[in-house]
Amino acid sequence: MKIQSLDHLVLTVKDLDISIDFYCNRLAMQHIRFADKRHAIAFGEQKINLHQADKIFLPAAGTPTMGSADLCFIVSTPMPQIIEHLNAAGITIIAGPVERSGAQGKIISVYIRDPDQNLLELSNHI
């Protein structure tokens, strides 16, 4: 078996509307509705399905938990503009910019938190 790529992942969120607003209006992702009243956010060729904590879809993770994710997004926007965008959107940068090792080499990253306290790393390839 050879795994090729990640199709989607799931974030457990407290409030769908707040999460959709954050990811779409502050981080410029796209809101997708699918199946029977399900929601996701999309970017590039990926998506993140959003499951509200009190309405989990089955099958589900063994312990769906808000705030347990640590995600790294590669951003095509240059780092100075990322920082400017986050500041204008009122999003606190909790660390960075700092150099890290990404899946395809060196990256420079800033870290923020989403409304559920998931750690989000926004990065540029170096």
Key terms:
single chain; 126 residues; alpha/beta; 2,3-Dihydroxybiphenyl 1,2-Dioxygenase, domain 1; four-stranded mixed beta sheet; 17% helix; globular
Structure in words:
The protein is α/β, with parallel strands linked by helices and 126 residues long. The protein contains two helices and eight strands. The chain has a four-stranded mixed β-sheet with strand order 1-4-3-2, covered by helices on one side. Strands 5-8-7-6 form a four-stranded mixed β-sheet, with helices on one face. It is globular. The relative contact order is 0.19.
SSE layout:
Blueprint: E1 8-13, H1 16-26, E2 30-34, E3 38-43, E4 46-52, E5 70-74, H2 79-88, E6 95-102, E7 105-113, E8 119-125
Parallel strand pairs: 1-4, 5-8
Antiparallel strand pairs: 2-3, 3-4, 6-7, 7-8
